[in-house]
Amino acid sequence: MKNIFSLILILVTLNANASHLVSGNFTYEYVSSGPGTRTYQIHLDLYRDNTGITMPTSVTVFYQQANSTTTNSFNASLNTSINALTANCGSSMAAEVHRYSYTITLPAGKVYNFSFSTCCKPSSINNIANPSSQGTYITTSLVTSRYFRSYNNSVLMEPSLNSVPINIKMPFEICKPDPDGDSLSFQIIPLFDGDASTLTPTNITYAPGYNSSNPLDTNSTVEIDTANRMLLVRSSTQKTALINVRIIEWAKDTTNAYKIMGVSYREMYFSFTSPLWNNPYNITIDSLGGIQGKDSLNLIVTAAIYPYSENFDSTDLVLIDPVGDTSVFINGASYVSSNYKELHLSLTDTLKPGYWTLYANNDWSDSSAVYGLCGRKFLDSSIFYVSPPSIKIQGPSDSLYAPGTTTYSVKNYEYVDSVVFNTTNCTIIYTANNFSNFDVSWSGGNATSTIQAIAYYPDGSQSADLLSVDVFGIGVNENELELDIFPNPVSELLLVCGFKESELKDREYRYIIHNVSGTIISEDLLEDNVIITSCLSSGQYFLTLVNRRDQILLRKSFIKL
Predict the structure, then answer these.
(1) Cβ-contact 489, 533 below 8 angstroms
(2) Mean of pLDDT values over 492-509
(3) Do the domain assignments include residue 263?
(4) Is residue 522 part of a domain?
(5) Is 539 helix (H, G, I), strand (E, B) or coil?
(6) Whole-angstrom distance, CA of residue 540 vs CA of residue 556
(7) What residues contact 404, with CB distance under 8 A and at least 6 apart?
(8) What is the pLDDT of residues 208-255, one digit of tens each?
(9) Based on the number of CB atoms within 10 Å of its own CB, is 546 exposed (0-12), middle (13-18) or buried (19 or more)?
(10) Domain boundary among 210, 239, 268
(11) CA 77 to chain centre
(12) Each residue's pLDDT tens digit, 383-426
């Protein structure tokens, strides 16, 4: 009689514990490989509502190889770390997540099913008929290995109690990205009851007006955003509800065919609350920026913004480029941190230097807004500056002669406000109005000269480049040439005068024509001392004549009629 009483006491205690379990899920981690075996750590997370019932120190988990009738079991021990959860957004729901773990070694290349069951559901759940009399059945399937891969890990599920005001469509994370890089598929399925000892799940009985296709009732919506691993829910009435999501992991084998690597289940608890009219604060921008030439932005906000496709498009978030164009827009987002406050926004084109503007749609009359926790909207705007590429001095750096003059060009000059030059053993004698090029006069031979260009930008930032130049002594006779151009003004042909016949023989001279803004209009080799100007528009120009070592022999302005 005493033994029978003890057994009844144990059963009553387990049922008391079970009546305070909200939900749960399995996960597993690969540990090691042996000859023909694989070792895994199995985790069972159980959600206990906070009503004072003590959880057991261990629970029994049953497992069975697929297509086998032999059932085995093990006792998973309670970990010391317990995750306390509190719902918000007007919900009073709270729970503790108790993790039970066990390390098991199984044959390689097999499929195993694990299960845990208990009674009963909390009576507060509205979408289940008589929840306190229906059980909880938790299961998972593990592929210990495939011939193309020895390891395997389940998806990770962040424990959460999900709360949202009614009449707001909100996304909630189902799971993290698969740690093995497997592709994931999702499906909403019925909730499970059943007996774990025989690994026989049965579908739970829904309350009137609810079913597996409409777990929140026919006037509410439940959708899956596969790309972002989110479950989107919207309810027209206040309620608490459970939704079961099946997650299948897929990996390609050596023939590029997909194989199943595991099946997980996530029972997600939702509390739909009254609208938060007394707490309407908005989500705003902490920081925003991007890099020139990249097709993405980095955004940090003050509170979580949940990812799903409708949250990030050209309607909800508007991007304006430095010239006021909105043709570059946001077409997606990924998350840098698990708190959903740091986002990586993808763009339809690359960023160019200058001031950009991002603003979130602030039309409260429709759904064109980005939502965060508790239905709060992301409503803010920000101006950010995309820094241009650094300037770069381009031109010869050795085998130059003094006295003499050389022309240098400046790469990425288009973005600067101003440029300051610092020199040693040389002098800047000409700078284009737009800083695209400049002329340097060498003042001494057998010395190293330096040219430093410091660029200043509209946002106050700067960049610099330094060029060291080897300059030798007196070089060639070109420095003694007395050259000029004729006629000036010119109509069709411009003649370069002052060359002797011996000086033209076997020598290469190149001419460059700039307009008054410093832009190169024409550049070519000088042939027969004649430059064709008929193609130029009327106005003032600058002619520069250089030798094969880029020494300047002549710089002269002329008028084209």
Answers:
(1) no
(2) 72
(3) no
(4) yes
(5) strand
(6) 11
(7) 441, 442, 475, 479, 551, 552
(8) 999 989 999 999 999 998 888 989 899 999 999 999 999 999 999 999
(9) buried
(10) 239
(11) 38
(12) 999 989 999 998 887 767 777 788 899 999 988 999 999 998 88
